[in-house]
Amino acid sequence: MYNYLDFEKPVADLEGKIIELKKLAENGEAVDVAEEIGRLEKRSRDALREVYKALTPWQKVQVARHPDRPHCLNYLDRLIADFTPLAGDRAFGDDHAIIAGFGRFRGEPIAVVGQEKGSDTKSRLKHNFGSPRPEGYRKAVRVMELADRFQIPVLTLVDTAGAYPGVEAEERGQAEAIARSTSACLALKVPSVSVVIGEGGSGGAIAIATANRVYMLEHAIYSVISPEGAASILWRDTTRSRDAATSMKITAQDLLDMKIIDGIVPEPVGGAHRSPETVIDAAGDTIAKALTDLAGSNMDLREQRREKYLAIGRNF
């Protein structure tokens, strides 16, 4: 059984009936129900397709935050061979919200920086729910500078509600760490590709997502602030998060229209959590093509990055 979202109730009801019939058949408590199961499975697929054909921005927020959605470590396990993580920022300590290191992507060396939320209570606490502290961004800078020195392309996987806003993070220079990480992204002389795999929240995301090519999964979100935070500021009412999500234009489709991102990685019907391997492989194909295109480009990559971000807001 999946963890169903509120708007998936019609699908949940049908799939619940299918499971009940299968259990009855296994226990020998029912006559042949194969035909009925087949009929219900078709209705379930059709219902799921109808639900996901016209998701609202708020529903996309819920899908992007789904607890079973594949996270950074899932992408590393499937896409990156011989991955060797580096720990620590050489100044304060290690931050587990950011995973950074080197490995091989389809046979070629690559540096990877990703944000990991965790998949259960223990791992979510370990990774601080994907909200990095300053030492996480300084670790990211350390890895990016190493990649630049040895001419290794950089891949970043973005999935955070935002940088950690705690007092200790501010005391250790959170804003400065985010700024330096963003600057390090812009200064890279090697190709850089970023994929928003879930939430891309504020400066916490931009700090590692300022790449030559930026892609989003079909139901990912990318915004300057969370819908709840925007509703609290604009209307002093967090219950208006739905209105904020719609007004802010945070979906992949909106951001592609505004030329803020470069492409969308399709997800299976029902979201990435229903077929993680399929969406991870699709992301891998997109990353591979982007790296090939960038490697074959004669343009100065730093200049291309500069022009890309200066053009945002001037295209519409």
List keywords for this structure.
single chain; alpha/beta; 2 domains; 8 strands
Fold topology:
Elements: H1 9-26, H2 34-53, H3 57-64, H4 72-79, E1 80-85, E2 98-105, E3 108-115, H5 121-126, H6 134-149, E4 154-160, H7 167-171, H8 174-187, E5 192-201, H9 202-209, E6 213-217, E7 221-223, H10 227-235, H11 241-248, H12 252-257, E8 263-265, H13 276-295, H14 301-311
Parallel strand pairs: 3-4, 4-5, 5-6, 5-7, 6-8
Antiparallel strand pairs: 1-2, 2-3
Molecular structure report:
Helix 6 packs parallel to helix 8, helix 8 runs parallel beside helix 9 and helix 10 crosses helix 11. The radius of gyration is 21 Å and the shape is globular. The relative contact order is 0.12. Strand 5, helix 9 and strand 6 form a beta-alpha-beta unit. It has two domains: 49 residues; 250 residues, 2-enoyl-CoA Hydratase, Chain A, domain 1, CATH 3.90.226. The protein has 14 helices and eight strands.
